[in-house]
Write a structure and sequence with these properties.
The complex is a heterodimer.
Chain A lengths: L1 H7 L3 H45 L3 H5 L13 H9 L2 H32 L5 H11 L4 H15 L6 H8 L6 H13 L3 H9 L4 H12 L1 H16 L3 H6 L8 H16 L4 H33 L1 H4 L5
Chain B lengths: L4 H34 L2 E4 L4 E4 L3 H9 L3 H31 L6 H14 L2 H9 L6 H18 L1 H12 L1 H6 L2 H12 L3 H9 L4 H29 L5 H11 L4 H27 L9
Antiparallel strand pairs in B: 1-2
Helix pairs in contact in B: 3-7, 3-9, 3-11, 4-9, 6-7, 9-11, 11-13, 12-13
Chain lengths: ~325, ~290
């Protein structure tokens, strides 16, 4: 204010507003630059998806034609029809859904209970055991795959969905400890007064957990459910090891199977393989379609997950 | 016998975590221990039993196996290039998106996180094999710079950098979680700090380096560890596919177990390095 008053006396209107204009322009320029960079990054991120969509509807003549890169002259859905059939889509979809939903439910239930124990109940060795849980996240799958396979074989669980479902109900499985971590962080952030009040009213620990804490944990429940669902849906490794029958294959497995069949029939590097690209892209798109639809509906929950569960405090 | 209150509390705690204890013992510690046990044995095809051979598997991995050590070192070198790249990229992106006045920041966040939801390993493999990660813009840049890099930094690093450019899109695809974590961390910086900086006359650049960056260093550490683990447990990793083929195609279970353990140790080494490097730079605000 003082500065403005001082310059007002010297040389006209421009001198009064100049510092403000300069700041404004600089801010706009930098924001513009940030926007441009973000747009570029967005393009890079979305490029493969566009590629997938565009390639999957290309008819063969369009594919060969070098001047056509993105928009086919004669789009066709034959590749989708072939992919649906080749992957036995609806059956595989159901298989994927069973595993993903089942494991997600298991993770929610077990991680909520275990996370609550780690967060709100004092017992000796608590910190150590929690550290152990985080430690399990570091173990690469290949280190334990052979003994795990043998274990499941002894149980008779090979070629069933039990190797996915049972561990998830016990807080294990794909990134299981992460969900425990999420619930622990969340429960830690809740006020103690709720529990104290309930305990004064005579509620036992289990009652406190089930009737009070759990309903409050809806954000964490949703986040864990969604992430477990998506990660299990996209998992290729464990289903590949544990599932043998074609009728039980999940969608990613079917995609891999399709690829292998194409390679066997046509060889790896031939022109015919190139002709298969639309088919494989259509198949890939069908594999990611359910998560994509889920994301279209629930993207807010994914993006706000870190905020809502208080992970980074 | 009525237990003391403290003991009752502890018992309740154990009951709550009992599913996890059972699960960990059964599905993690058991297989881990057995895998360790196996790594010192070899499966004899005559009697289908495991025979103790001491450290032979480990020795073989280092000296006899022409494939394992190069793969391991390659993975190590690759992560040396990838991890800083991922961290710088995700932090920068988080800063850009969190910037005040940027329009459609919500939409950008949705786009940035999208790959995490659709990244099925198989799908990414498909895309890579069809060259969907190859951006012509990037390619034109790399040809010129790769020559310069080779001259100044040596062929090993140049090779890694070239490999990174080929897969750049998909390396960036795996940064969604890190970006999200950084965004949350940035939001957690108290506004009073920025105000104090402004009062002291800091311009935007100075604020970035002297206020924002120090405050997020713990999260940089977190993301670094997460990135290491994420890239090492990616099942289409070269080392992992090799171990897989040794176990399930050559049926050399003992050897595969030893390889798996060495890979596991490498992760530890890398995380150790990350901690050592970052220890000097991490600033914990408000902690004693």
């Amino acid at each position: 204010m003082r500065q403005a008053a001082a310059t007002r006396k010297s040389s006209g209107i421009m001198a009064v507003e100049w510092p403000k204009i300069k700041r404004r322009v600089k801010s706009v320029v930098w924001t513009g630059l940030a926007l441009w960079i973000l747009l570029t990054i967005s393009f890079v991120f979305l490029y493969p998806v566009f590629y997938m969509a565009s390639t999957s509807i290309m008819s063969i003549p369009d594919l060969i034609e070098p001047s056509i890169k993105w928009l086919p002259l004669e789009p066709t859905f034959e590749h989708y029809r072939n992919a649906l059939e080749g992957m036995r889509y609806w059956l595989s979809l159901r298989n994927s859904a069973v595993i993903a939903l089942g494991a997600a439910v298991g993770h929610v239930l077990s991680a909520a209970m275990v996370g609550y124990g780690f967060a709100r109940v004092k017992f000796p060795g608590r910190e150590f055991l929690f550290g152990l849980a985080l430690f399990t996240l570091l173990i690469p799958p290949q280190t334990t795959i052979v003994p795990s396979f043998m274990l499941y074989r002894n149980f008779g669980w090979i070629d069933t969905y039990l190797p996915f479902l049972v561990p998830s109900f016990l807080g294990q499985g794909l990134r299981g400890a992460l969900y425990i971590f999420i619930f622990r962080q969340f429960f830690k952030g809740l006020p103690w007064e709720l529990e104290d009040a309930a305990k004064i009213d005579g509620a036992g620990s289990l009652r406190v957990f089930a009737s009070i804490m759990l309903p409050l944990a809806k954000p964490a429940i949703l986040v864990v459910f969604l992430f477990s669902l998506v990660w299990h849906w996209n998992d290729y490794f464990e289903p590949m090891i544990y599932i043998n029958s074609f009728s039980k294959f999940t969608l990613p497995l079917k995609l891999g199977d399709l690829r292998r069949q194409m390679e066997q029939v046509f060889g790896s590097m031939s022109v015919a393989q190139m002709m298969n690209e639309p088919l494989r892209m259509a198949a890939s798109f069908l594999v990611i379609l359910p998560p994509l639809l889920l994301y279209a509906v629930a993207h807010r929950w994914f993006v706000e997950s870190v905020d809502r569960t208080g992970l980074v405090e | 016998m009525k237990l003391k209150l403290r003991h009752r509390e502890s018992l309740k705690g154990y009951i709550f975590i009992s599913p996890w204890i059972v699960g960990t013992a059964l599905f993690v510690l058991g297989p881990l221990a057995y895998s360790f046990h196996l790594s010192f044995r070899t499966l004899s095809l005559e009697d289908n039993l495991f025979h103790f051979v001491g450290l032979r598997n480990y020795v073989e991995a280092f000296i006899l196996d022409a494939k394992f050590l190069p793969l391991l070192l390659n993975t190590f070198a690759r992560s040396l290039v990838e991890i800083p790249l991922v961290l710088v990229f995700s932090l920068t992106t988080a800063l850009l998106v969190s910037r005040k006045g940027v329009p459609a920041s919500g939409l950008f966040k949705v786009i940035l996180f999208l790959p995490v939801v659709i990244s099925s390993g198989m799908v990414v493999q498909e895309l890579m094999s069809q060259g969907a990660g190859d951006l012509s813009v990037v390619r034109s840049v790399t040809v010129e710079s790769s020559i310069a890099i080779e001259r100044y930094l040596g062929p090993a690093i140049a090779e890694q950098v070239a490999a990174v450019f080929n897969r750049l899109t998909f390396i960036l695809w795996r940064t969604g979680v890190q970006i999200l974590i950084f965004i949350a961390a940035l939001q957690g910086i108290p506004a009073s700090m920025y105000e104090a900086a402004r009062v002291d006359g800091a311009n935007e650049w100075e604020t970035l380096w002297l206020v924002t960056l120090p405050m997020v260093t713990p999260i940089i550490l977190l993301n670094a560890v997460y990135t290491v683990v994420d890239s090492f447990t990616d099942v289409f990793n070269e080392v992992l596919t090799y171990i897989h083929s040794v176990a399930f195609r050559e049926f050399r279970m003992g050897y595969a177990a030893a390889l798996g353990w060495m890979y596991f140790l490498l992760i530890f080494v890398l995380i150790g390095i990350v901690f050592l490097v970052m220890r000097r730079w991490v600033y914990y605000a408000g902690e004693r």
